[in-house]
Amino acid sequence: VSSSHLQLATFALGTVGWIMCTISMGLVDWRVWHVDNTTVISSGVAWVGIWKVCFISYLHVSPGYEEQFCHKFKAFDSFVPHEIYAAQGLLLIAMFLGLAALTITVFALRNIYMGIADKTIVRFFLVGGFFFIFSGLCVLVPVSWNFYSVTHNESIAFPPSYHMPSSPVSQEVGAAIPIGIIAVILLLLSGTFSLSYISPASSNTIMQ
């Protein structure tokens, strides 16, 4: 048990990282677009996520009230850029890999605290560590790619039914990207800590 304190930190950091990965995937504000035509987009701001695009409009509602309109991206929409499709797939993979890593880590810690210490525990931590690292890398790719698109003010050719311009006046990073960056750091740290586990038997062998 005394040799597994770092692995407890692995579980804690991995849990927070996995939660933040899931939150990042669900948020709509990956990119914040500022537009000059406020006829439909009343606030002049639209949020572009990896599943949908949303904006506030005062149309079709009583004066003084606002309503959020969202258009969901459909599968294989030709106008959706590659970095958004990549984010959809990779973040789903990251979520499942992170969940598998947490499950394996819990099982390994359970064995340690129940006194079932053998060489297979090292293998569990190794597998869990690799899953954490792969999960972190799956988050890193779309986060970096979309951050690049924002900094270069890249456009998206939305269809007319979306009431969105193809290019914003300017755009900035939304909350989902920094949350994703934190998730990457935590998941990679979790994987590193998990891979560093040395069983007491292995430790004694090295000391001899």
From TrEMBL:
Annotated transmembrane regions: 6-28, 40-59, 84-109, 121-145, 175-198
Alphabetized GO MF terms: structural molecule activity
Record keyword Flavoprotein present: no
Membrane topology: Multi-pass membrane protein
Keyword Hydrolase: no
InterPro entries given in the database record: Claudin, PMP22/EMP/MP20/Claudin
Assigned protein family: Belongs to the claudin family.
Name listed for the protein in its UniProt record: CLD34 protein
